[in-house]
Prior knowledge:
Layout lengths: L17 H17 L6 H20 L5 H20 L7 H27 L1
Helix pairs in contact: 1-2, 1-4, 2-3, 3-4
Amino acid sequence: MEDQHLEHHIPGHKPKSYTATVRELDTRMRWLLNHKQEEGSQEKQQELGEIIDWIPELAADSELKHRDWDEVKQSSTELMTVYQQIDFADVDSSLVGHYFLLVVKLKQFSALSEMNKVNG
């Protein structure tokens, strides 16, 4: 009888760190806004949603303090709510602006995480 193992598949678009995640939030949204009618953009939209979903997990693996992680979790929940409201066929600039403001907030926690790593 063969050994049956469940292979733990990590998607290729899953960032390796919280800092990389925050960069992806920015670059992927900019790509989607500039290529919304291109083939593959639906898949990219789905991937960005998954990346947003992974924020708390990847932040937990970072050097963030617990209170900072709580803020990241709250901001990621708000980011997901905003992201789900964006219609790439008819982009609402105020929603996109809100999205990028939340990304800037998450970037600040990325810097904190990196500082904590250095200061250990």
